[in-house]
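HUMAN: Quick job: go over this next protein and say how the chain folds.
***
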Amino acid sequence: MGIISTVMVVLTAVGLIFGALFGLIRGRNRSILRFSLILVSVLGAIFLREPLTNVVMNIEVEGAPLKDTLLAMFQQGDFALPQSILDLFFNLIKVVLGIVAYFIAFGVLRFITWVLVFPICKIFVKREEEKKGLFGALIGLGQGVIIVFAMLVPLNGLVMQVDKVASLKMQGEPIIEVPADIGLHDYIEGPLSKTFNAIGGWY
């Protein structure tokens, strides 16, 4: 199993196991509360992704927006790339920045809802008189599924785009070299990547 496959399997298992474990500890009512706050964080990250990406792309570097600086860098002298390849790289950069912006927004919102919102809401959402740990674990597992979906489906999509770029050649040579032990293509053709793509390709 390549490095990418191992990392994705571990992250998936950690998300599901810890989701169920925290749900078991919290009980039903507070697990529902946390589940709701996670959904709010996901929606917030989706809403903030594009504005944050645009902010980064328009940051001025040496008096010019970052996007123009990047384009100029790939158009200089002997390093100049064909327009089709240039467009592909530029779009890939936007995808990477968009996913990074999404991850940052989701992480910040998860942290804020956990540190500030959840403790306040717990005052009003009391534990059930007879703690229903099993129901809490099931709801926590659902929360883990949402987190795995929200984090790993976009990451899977990014890996697929990198695989496409890695397959491109210029003058008979690959544009980028991907070490074999990374297992990039093997992961793309494996069951986990195909499952993520089938379930969340639209996302």
Observations:
- Residues 83-124 form the longest helix (42 residues).
- The chain has seven helices and four strands.
